[in-house]
Design a protein that fits this description.
Elements (H helix, E strand, L loop, with lengths): L1 H25 L6 H30 L8 H8 L8 E8 L5 H18 L5 E8 L11 E3 L4 E3 L5 E7 L7 E4 L5 E6 L8 H17 L1 H12 L13 H14 L6 E10 L6 E2 L1 H8 L1 H6 L5 E9 L12 E3 L4 E4 L24 E8 L7 E3 L6 E4 L3 E5 L11 E2 L1 H18 L9 H33 L7 H23 L2 H19 L2 H5 L5 H37 L1
Helix pairs in contact: 2-15, 3-11, 4-5, 6-7, 6-11, 8-10, 11-12, 11-13, 12-13
Length: 562
């Protein structure tokens, strides 16, 4: 057995050597230094393209643009620290039958009484005197008796003293279509100094009554609190605030332009026409003209015959006792059926206020509201509706004349006052309009400031949200117009303040509801990972592995040479 094993060993030895020789001949030749450098340069170029070109392009195309916003200023406006709103309301005191010294003394006593009784932190009545002794609005030369300096702002109201010996006690009368409070009084004797004091006390009380609703409303709007007068005037602040809330719920949001649509719907073939233009020009035109300092109005009209009532109505029901058709109060809100009555859509950027005059068919006339027996009602933030029951013998009239439409248009005018939020007092229309101007200016400033604060909080909370440069521009414009509006309010220029406050509110809303900014909220970072990993993963693995392998070989080569 030993001989055989030795023989097999001697036979296998040459074969084993041959295998090693063959394997040695199949090994690749050693790589030249030029080849190694070329491979390394290729790998380096790939990484250079990725680092110098790919990553910057990726960063530029995926980075969310965020323009710089003045966050501190925005938060300051939202918290009310930038502008302390104060409303100086100038009241011009004029007495042509009194000398300038007596008028000045009277004005000073009235001012002292107002300062003593009025505790509002934001609302101040300022008594000024006319240089020429008249309270005409065209007379812009007014003097502040407390400082003897000229007042540049126009007087919001006039107090006109009228001497009438028939009055033993002063009597106040408010002019309905003029911003004037007329005070009728007897003669003031120089031997009775208390006469001026008594008259000053009477004027003070009447002025506090005249502006009570506006003062309580502004205090509640800006501070959330109400102040009381230290006077004998019976001013119920709670009822004024409740009235303001109801008025706000009925009224449209403020707009610089409103579109009025007057529609005539008839249940039969008549009437088929109405002289609405002449009626609007005579009975509504003066009111719209006086309101032009607050808002503008555009008007259109339409007529539809055979207009059927909505199928959702439970009525009208025929009452045999009164021989009338009645509508339930619950039916009034569903009275307008847009599918059956093609009301004009909103035209332009302003809201549309609808006024509908409905003439029922002779088969359903007369038609009344069952609970109240009335024929007109108001739909908050929409418009007004009025049922026109034809009089006896006028059922077949094809045209509604201007005389027929006078009561209709006057009711529409009253409904319009409610829909635009006009205060109910004082009884003077110009004073109510000026009060609405100040109220609207204050509410718009608050709205724009609140929007800036909301935008600031949104920017800090959502760091991935886009902030385009036009948003930053809108914010800057908002702050500029807010500062201008605040300055005009302090100076008593309320028409200009309202205009700048309206522009500020529009820019603030435009910045907050920027479409490109809002759309980015719904694209979080997780979506980016889900998109880029399947695309870049297969490309990154060869580059990373080649770089690691080359680094390993470089370290081994350095170790051998060391």
């Amino acid at each position: 057995m030993d001989a055989q094993q030795a023989e097999s060993v001697t036979k296998d030895a040459p074969a084993e050597g041959v295998v090693h020789a063959v394997l040695a001949t199949k090994q690749p030749p050693p790589e030249s230094n030029h080849g190694i450098k070329t491979r390394r340069w290729i790998i380096f170029c790939f990484w250079a393209i990725v680092g110098l070109l790919g990553l910057p392009i990726w960063y530029a195309t995926t980075t969310v643009p965020r323009a710089a916003l003045p966050l501190e200023s925005m938060d300051a406006w939202a918290s009310g620290q930038t502008c302390k709103l104060e409303f100086p309301v100038h009241v011009a005191l004029a007495a042509g039958h009194l000398d300038f010294a007596t008028t000045t003394e009277l004005a000073q006593q009235v001012q002292q009484g107002l300062d003593r009784q009025n505790k509002s932190p934001i609302y101040r009545l300022r008594v000024i005197t006319s240089r020429h002794g008249t309270a005409d609005q065209s007379d812009a030369q007014y003097i502040d008796p407390s400082t003897s300096s000229a007042v540049s702002s126009q007087a919001a109201a006039n107090v006109n003293l009228v001497l009438d010996p028939s009055y033993s006690h002063p009597v106040a009368k408010v002019q309905p279509f003029d911003p004037t409070l007329s005070i009728f009084h007897g003669s003031l004797s120089s031997s009775q100094p208390s006469g001026v004091s008594d008259l000053a006390g009477f004027i003070t009380t009447e002025l506090l009554k005249l502006f009570a609703e506006e003062q309580v409303t502004l205090d509640y709007l800006l501070t959330g609190q109400t102040t009381h007068h230290e006077s004998t005037t019976d001013i119920d602040s709670s009822s004024i605030i409740e009235g303001y809330r109801k008025r706000s719920n009925r009224a449209f949001k403020y707009a610089s332009t409103y579109h009025l649509t007057f529609s005539l719907f008839t249940g039969a073939a008549a009437p088929s026409a109405w002289d609405i233009k002449a009626a609007l020009d005579d009975y509504l035109g003066p009111f719209l003209a006086s309101f032009s300092s607050v808002s503008k109005f555009s008007v259109d009209t339409q007529v539809q015959l055979y207009a059927s009532l909505s199928s959702s109505l439970h009525g009208p029901q025929y009452d045999e006792t009164s021989e009338q058709w009645t509508l339930l109060r619950s039916d009034l809100s569903a009275f307008i059926n847009a599918a059956e009555w093609p009301l004009s859509p909103s035209i332009g950027v302003g809201p549309t206020i609808n006024f509908v005059a409905y003439v029922p068919s002779p088969k359903q006339a007369p038609m009344l509201i069952e609970e109240s027996g009335g024929t007109s009602w108001l739909i908050p933030q929409w418009g007004g509706v009025q049922i026109l029951n034809p009089s006896a013998g006028q059922e077949n009239n094809t045209v509604l004349t201007k005389h027929d439409l006078e009561p209709v248009v006057r009711i529409f005018a009253e409904q319009l006052e409610s829909l635009i939020g006009l205060p109910q007092s004082p009884p003077s229309l110009p004073l109510r309009l000026s009060s609405l101007t100040r109220e609207r200016a204050a509410s718009l400033i608050l709205s724009a400031s609140s929007t800036l604060g909301a935008l600031s909080r949104l920017t800090l909370k959502l760091t991935s949200i886009a902030i385009p440069h036009n948003v930053a521009d809108s914010v800057q414009k908002t702050i500029h117009h807010l500062e201008t509006a605040c300055s005009h309010i302090h100076d008593g220029h309320y028409d200009s303040a309202l205009e700048h406050a309206r522009i500020a509110e529009a820019h603030a809303e435009q910045a907050f509801f920027e479409p490109s900014m809002v759309g980015q909220v719904y694209f979080p970072d997780e979506h980016k990972v889900a998109v880029y990993v399947p695309l870049l993963g297969p490309m990154a693995v060869p580059l990373v592995m080649a770089a690691l392998k080359e680094i390993k070989k470089f370290k081994q080569a350095r170790a051998k040479t060391a």
